[in-house]
User: Which sequence fits this backbone?
């Protein structure tokens, strides 16, 4: 990472583009893309590097959003503390759900995570602090570290961008570390990993918990950006959406999920007044991806870039 | 008034009976899902959407052609089965060699498209569908007033599930099917057209969903989203029963309907979640499901 | 934003050379209708509210002080998050000056928060909950047609006084349902009635059988339906199917619209007592508007929500013309200043908390034999004067109300 490889140049160019972007593009849209990009990247940590398809990741995303919104609004916490609270709860939730879920794999794993997320959805509907259908509204963005006023859209944007970049660097670090190598070994051949003496379950649980915590971070940010935490974020449709984003961008790549997230958010933004066309288009993309582009956008793009010598 | 644990028996029996009616729908849907999973190894996420299509075909037949309930009960499953078979031949069949998860994702996408299209065309407020004349009215059972139509749903569902079970367990065709589930290559070697059987099984499972849809039309009103939340519950039923176990799916369907009904007496708010709690417990204690053989 | 303002003032200077010139952003007045176009409430609000807003703009002449009026619309699907993000987009990037209609409390509050923060106007017609004029009130937010307080004061009062003393509630499980139940309970208890229990159902809900069974075993005389739209219709139909009404218990629809009566049919709905802010067949003015409306809506008569949108959009335009600007707070002040005088509201006035006070009506649904034709559904039993119908200003928890 220290040399100026084409890859590093590409990343720097992307960051530069992200810094100037809000002057030309609606910042709220960009922030939504970044939040969902982070959500998808967190989800991908599990699907892409451990090979576990969770169909319940909305519970971490949505619940963390609730916690952040509640602590910021009712307890008056500063944004960074509210986010920390959200992430902490999501991480704990991830550890508990993961402890049960990783006993199964494949379709069963997907079902168990779905079941847990339905249970959390029930909690979100019933618990008084979430305000049911209304959600928590009018969440104050507050002053970051008590200094920077986040109600300024640009300040909020750069804060979200900074968290996003840091998180992606962190994810990259995780998957390239020895820990990440073991995860990939488990994904590719679990019995072999076991026979090599790795305590597979501990690795899976740690990956699941990390993924849950990061998904929670994305949810917390989103609740501050939109000043709202609602049932839509805990609903299983949100879990389906994050699968779509990851699949569309490219499973098991670093940038794929973010690219997929931006595309899906763009579709939502562009068709937001057209009601259910968003659902129809998303469904069609799902079908096409599964049938034709199982490696996703980045999976199609990367070899092309490689041929041009753009990436190492 | 008699009470059990402080609950009037009247309320208890009433809720249990209603639970049984819901269970009838779970049973029909999970039976189809289990059949499809057994032979195709695909978790059919579009099952709920196809159930909704069944109800809509019935409504369209009535509104545009004046064809009544009984005719719809025959035509709707056939029409939806044909649609299902087309999907299987052109889309699903390309995924059989891949991980099961791709089948789940593809059918999830299909479900979104189907539901989205119907929402776009008909909105989500729901179309009323009247109870057929022959089944109007109700019986006073003493503890509650049971509309005849709801009684009919339970009976129809029991007959269908029992019939399907007999077909699979007691006939030669069923024997082929079970054999193909165990080892498709071997059955193919005996000169049986397995791909054809796979297609027909998918069609049959889908037709069951469509019949359930028609049965549901007068109760729940015809609504594009009627299958979207139900499918999650039915997944749970199949998992609890044991993936691929036919009898398990049916029994669990009715059983969980009852559990749900019971929950409505004691803790109504939790009724929609109790099934998932049961599922989590079953998976931890008996991971293959209550009736599952394979681990 | 700053650039925009600079350009505008430069243009104003060039044009007027000292004469006070009207200030309108983007040189137009833009109104957004944000409503339920596909869901449970699409019948009572939905497309009809867009038609009503179009009519209001046409009747106003299509121009405010010579500048064009634009109308946009979108479906919020009764979801707070969708409503909030569309409202933000409209106010931020599309130059929308006022958002109207806003059925469903969750969506209404979501838009209220955004509008308040940005100092833009929101005009409520469809949402019912009283917090909109209490702790969620805003200097630029208005509540037009009715609210849960008025519904309870009208319907519950009438039902309890005619002998319905013990109640059980079927309540839609979100803020509106809770609010409507609470308001009704208050009235029931104040009149010496008792509440035997309640059950909350998911929103929206199709199968009410198990909830109705609970209501039945409670033994209450009156089953109060604290829900709306398709939920109310389903509950009433299924109560009939399960023989509950034959068993002697009575249903009280606490929020019933004329569109609901239309889908239930008079056979099922007859005799029901309800409160409404508008009925098409009251005088020349209401009939004339409703006839024009029905011509554009395949013969459907306007619900009170739809008629309310016409009234609120008209009043907004009047105020925007009189204030010579579309700046939220200035138009809002003008709206409070001007009286409302149209077919919908006679002697209507807007209070400090944003409540538009006008007369409400207690109505009873006609029996099939009494009805002379399509949409001839209501007998108006009593006019409830505005000051009696709505929550007294003294009880409001709105911080804008000076006490």
Assistant:
């Amino acid at each position: 990472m220290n040399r100026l490889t084409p890859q590093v140049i590409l990343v720097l160019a992307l960051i530069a583009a992200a810094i100037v972007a809000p002057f030309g593009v609606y910042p709220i849209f960009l922030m939504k893309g970044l939040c969902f990009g982070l959500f998808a990247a967190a989800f991908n940590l599990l699907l892409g590097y451990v090979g576990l398809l969770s169909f319940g990741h909305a519970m971490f995303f949505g619940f963390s959003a609730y916690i952040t919104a509640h602590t910021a609004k009712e307890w008056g916490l500063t944004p960074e503390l509210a986010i920390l609270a959200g992430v902490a709860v999501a991480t704990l939730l991830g550890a508990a759900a993961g402890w049960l879920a990783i006993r199964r794999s494949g379709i069963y794993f997907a079902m168990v995570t779905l079941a847990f997320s339905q249970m959390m959805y029930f909690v979100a509907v019933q618990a008084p602090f979430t305000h049911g259908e209304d959600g928590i509204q009018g969440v104050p963005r507050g002053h970051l570290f008590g200094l920077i006023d986040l109600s300024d859209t640009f300040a909020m944007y750069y804060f979200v961008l900074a968290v996003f970049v840091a998180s992606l660097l962190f994810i990259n670090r995780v998957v390239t570390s020895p820990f990440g190598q073991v995860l990939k070994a488990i994904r590719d051949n679990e019995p072999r990993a076991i026979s090599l003496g790795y305590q597979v379950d501990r690795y899976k649980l740690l990956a699941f918990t990390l993924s849950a915590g990061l998904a929670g971070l994305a949810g917390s940010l989103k609740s501050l950006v939109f000043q709202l935490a609602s049932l839509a974020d805990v609903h299983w449709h949100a879990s389906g959406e994050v699968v779509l984003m990851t699949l569309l961008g490219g499973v098991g790549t670093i940038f794929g999920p973010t690219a997929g997230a931006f595309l899906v958010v763009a579709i939502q933004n562009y068709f937001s007044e057209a009601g259910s066309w968003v659902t129809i288009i998303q469904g069609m993309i799902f079908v096409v991806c599964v049938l034709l582009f199982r490696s996703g956008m980045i999976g199609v793009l990367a070899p092309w870039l490689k041929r041009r010598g753009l990436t190492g | 008034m008699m009470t059990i644990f402080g609950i009037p028996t009247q309320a208890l029996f009433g809720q249990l009976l209603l639970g049984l009616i819901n269970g009838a729908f779970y049973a029909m849907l999970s039976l189809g899902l289990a059949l499809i999973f057994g032979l195709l190894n695909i978790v059919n996420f579009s099952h709920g959407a196809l159930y909704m299509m069944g109800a809509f075909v019935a409504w369209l037949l009535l509104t545009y052609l004046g064809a009544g309930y009984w005719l719809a009960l025959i035509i709707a499953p056939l029409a939806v089965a044909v649609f299902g078979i087309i999907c299987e031949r052109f889309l699903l069949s390309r995924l059989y060699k891949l991980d099961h998860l791709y089948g789940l994702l593809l059918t999830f996408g299909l479900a979104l498209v189907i539901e989205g299209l119907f929402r776009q065309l008909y909105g989500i407020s729901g179309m009323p569908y009247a109870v057929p004349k022959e089944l109007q009215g109700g019986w006073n059972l003493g503890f509650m007033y049971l509309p005849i139509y709801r009684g009919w749903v339970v009976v129809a569902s029991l007959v269908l599930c029992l019939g399907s079970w007999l077909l699979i367990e007691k006939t030669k065709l069923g024997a082929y099917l079970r054999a193909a589930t165990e080892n498709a290559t071997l059955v193919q070697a005996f000169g049986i057209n397995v791909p054809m059987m796979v297609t027909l099984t998918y069609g049959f499972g889908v037709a069951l969903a469509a019949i359930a849809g028609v049965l549901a039309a007068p109760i729940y009103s015809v609504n594009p989203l009627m299958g979207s939340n139900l499918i999650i519950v039915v997944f749970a039923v199949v998992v609890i029963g044991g993936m691929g176990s036919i009898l398990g799916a049916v029994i669990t369907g009715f059983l969980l309907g009852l559990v749900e009904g019971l929950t409505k007496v004691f803790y109504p708010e939790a009724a929609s979640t109790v099934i998932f709690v049961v599922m989590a417990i079953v998976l931890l204690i008996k991971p293959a499901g209550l009736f599952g053989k394979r681990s | 934003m700053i650039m925009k303002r600079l350009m505008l003032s430069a243009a104003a200077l060039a044009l007027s050379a000292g004469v006070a010139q009207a200030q309108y952003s983007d040189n137009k007045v833009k109104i957004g209708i944000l409503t339920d176009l596909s869901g449970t409430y699409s019948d009572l609000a939905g497309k009809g509210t867009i038609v009503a807003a179009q009519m209001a703009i046409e009747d106003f002449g299509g121009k405010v002080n010579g500048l064009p009026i634009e109308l946009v619309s979108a479906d919020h699907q009764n979801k707070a998050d969708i409503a909030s993000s569309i409202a933000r987009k409209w106010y931020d990037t599309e130059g929308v000056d006022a958002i109207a209609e806003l059925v469903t409390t969750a969506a209404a509050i979501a838009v209220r928060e955004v509008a308040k923060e940005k100092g833009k106007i929101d005009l409520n017609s469809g949402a019912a909950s009283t917090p909109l004029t209490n702790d969620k009130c805003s200097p630029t937010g208005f509540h037009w047609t009715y609210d849960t307080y008025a519904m309870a004061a009208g319907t519950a009062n009438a039902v309890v006084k005619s002998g319905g003393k013990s109640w059980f509630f079927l309540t839609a499980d979100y803020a509106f349902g809770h609010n409507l139940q609470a308001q009704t309970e208050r009235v029931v208890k104040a009149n010496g009635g008792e509440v035997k229990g309640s059950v909350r159902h998911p929103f929206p809900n199709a199968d009410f059988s198990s909830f109705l069974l609970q209501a039945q075993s409670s033994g209450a005389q009156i089953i109060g339906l604290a829900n709306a739209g398709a939920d109310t219709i389903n509950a009433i139909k299924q109560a009939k199917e399960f023989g509950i009404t034959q068993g002697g218990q009575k249903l009280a629809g606490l929020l019933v619209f004329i569109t609901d009566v239309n889908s239930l049919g008079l056979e099922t709905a007859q005799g029901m007592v309800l409160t409404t802010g508008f009925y098409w067949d009251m005088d020349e003015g209401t009939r004339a508007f409703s006839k024009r409306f029905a011509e554009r809506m395949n013969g459907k008569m306007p619900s009170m929500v739809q008629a309310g949108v016409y009234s609120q959009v008209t009043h907004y335009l009047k105020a925007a013309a009189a204030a010579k600007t579309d700046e939220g707070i200035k138009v809002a002040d003008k709206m409070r200043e001007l009286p409302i005088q149209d077919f919908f509201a006679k002697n209507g006035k807007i209070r400090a908390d944003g409540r538009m006070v006008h007369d409400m009506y207690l109505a009873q649904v006609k029996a099939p034999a009494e009805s002379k034709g399509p949409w001839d559904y209501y007998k108006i039993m009593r006019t409830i004067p505005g000051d009696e119908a709505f929550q007294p200003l003294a009880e409001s928890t709105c911080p804008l109300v000076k006490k």
Summary: The mean pLDDT of chain B is 87.
